[in-house]
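re: ur question from the group chat, yeah i did fold both. here u go
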Amino acid sequence: MLLLGASGSGKSTLLAGIAGLLGGDDEGEVTGSIEVDGAHPSAQRGRVGLVLQDPDAGVVLSRVGDDVAFGCENLGVPPAEIPAHVAAALDAVGLDVPLDRATAHLSGDQKQRLAIAGVLAMRPGLLLLDEPTANLDPDGVREVTDAVARAVTEAGTTLVVIEHRTEVWLPLMTRVIVLAEGGGILADGAPAEVFGAHADELLAAGVWVPDRPVDLPVLPVAAVDAPAALETRGLAVARDGRTVVRAGIDLRVPAGAASVITGPNGVGKSTLALTLAGLLPENAGTVEAVGLPPGRRGTRPSRWRSPELLTRIGTVFQDPEHQFLTATVRDELAVGPRALKLPADEVDALVDDLLERLGLTALARANPFTLSGGQKRRLSVGTVLATAPDVVVLDEPTFGQDRRGWASVVGLLQEQIRSGRTVIAVTHDAEVARHLGGQRIELLAVAS
């Protein structure tokens, strides 16, 4: 079953309820009921496997092998059988790392594979997946969907998937349920019936409909002779300050255009982006901000102070929660403008505009950590755009977005480019790359 709906319609909350994770009356008001095999979900936890939207939330132990084995151990699987469960699950999702690899040293996409492997190793009767392929490259998407398909068809597993990009899972789906934003069900039926009879309703609700592209312009490729915003020479980047993931990088990032970083998972895209943004030091070589005003210590962003970065280079992290600082959405958007000492009325006007553009007006007083995954991503993009930096660096800017959210984010980035700002985006989304135009920086896997 494919579970769809606009961002914030309650999809992830429903999965948490089915998994028995919503808590008791002390955590909120409960009406109605959920049953799994005729019993309350809390009595069926061994039968249910849930992969959360945030892969970091699913990491329990410090080593890969131990983490995948954790669920099996808690279910009382005989110890002699657990290694086979672990090996089969890791092979199924294509996570080819040593069993003693530290989970803290995995990249975001590897953690996503790890979370899925941990659930597959349990061999549950009900498998719940929340945006399981959002951070994976095309090969990774195929590996994961194939692994899930085998689990479903060979073991008779029931599958419920949340995925905004519907075409990924459609071949496996027998039923589609669409949640309405205000509560209740917007559509329920076979895929052909739902996407055929209800296409206009789904589009209006912000749901992705196969073969119905977003109506946005495609920006042109940057001119070859455009002035540079950033240049690298002999650059080597390291994920943890010591482990080099890419070396010998010579790049020229044109000003006032997009540079889209693509490539397979684990090749160093996020590490390169953070280094270009000045948030990680160069392991070797240099990053020079040749098209930006220098800081007190020169033109290398890694040597700039935080206030100097504020209006020069803004960064949207892969995990949006890593950059939230305040207790409300409104205050979060106001952090940067207030740090720039803008007048209060100007800050209010700027925040109101971003709330409206990002579809977050009704959530202005909400705590950022209580938002849905898609809403958190839009907020993280807004917090950076609020200070109008010369360069915007974004890691998976459209992760978890419904159709409306995707169009809002991409449209805002196009406006940044048209206004002369430079955008650097790490993405697996080919449509993001196409609509932003600019140059492609494709990182290839390094031969082992």
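okk and heres the other one u asked abt
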Amino acid sequence: MKIALWAIGEIAMNERERRELCDQVVGQFNLSHTATYRDACRRVGEVMSERLGARVELRFMPMRNTHLSGATARLANGTYVVYCAKSPSWYHRLGILLHELAHLLLGHQPTALGPGEGLRHFAPHLPSKMVRLVAGRTTHTRDEEREAEEFADELIERLTERQNLVEAVTPTEARPHVMRIAEGLGPVPKKR
């Protein structure tokens, strides 16, 4: 029998321990049966806050012309800010946020964003102190990125398997042909 060991920070975790951590985190989400991907995204921030014992803010923003889709930074006041690509798909956003959560759970240090990587373009709204803080962080190794991606995949699989999560589309966001079909199937909430 072959036992897989996952090197996490300076801790080795076997497959059973990794599965138990995944179970624990998925249980911590405690989503209702009517939860959407958007609700799950909000809950990622709350779970991170509970795990860190600190305030966590989620910020969805366009991330054009950068190789990043997400990053986590810690402010001088102890607040964590998780930046996530403003994708039209909440499922995609959930995957990015779970990847950031996975880095935390696996004990990885935050990703570095050097000035040469377009940090000002990535987050032009950041104050200069924050730019220096973010730019001074260490970079993830390929193994850490792979570990975080694999663990995030496990989390999203378990969350979507356990819940019946769906994309939340409000009537004003739906395309006209989708609205015509929806109206034929049942009552649609009125526009405000």
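fwiw on the second one: The CA atoms of residues 81 and 176 lie 37 Å apart. Residues 5-164 form one domain. idk if thats what u expected
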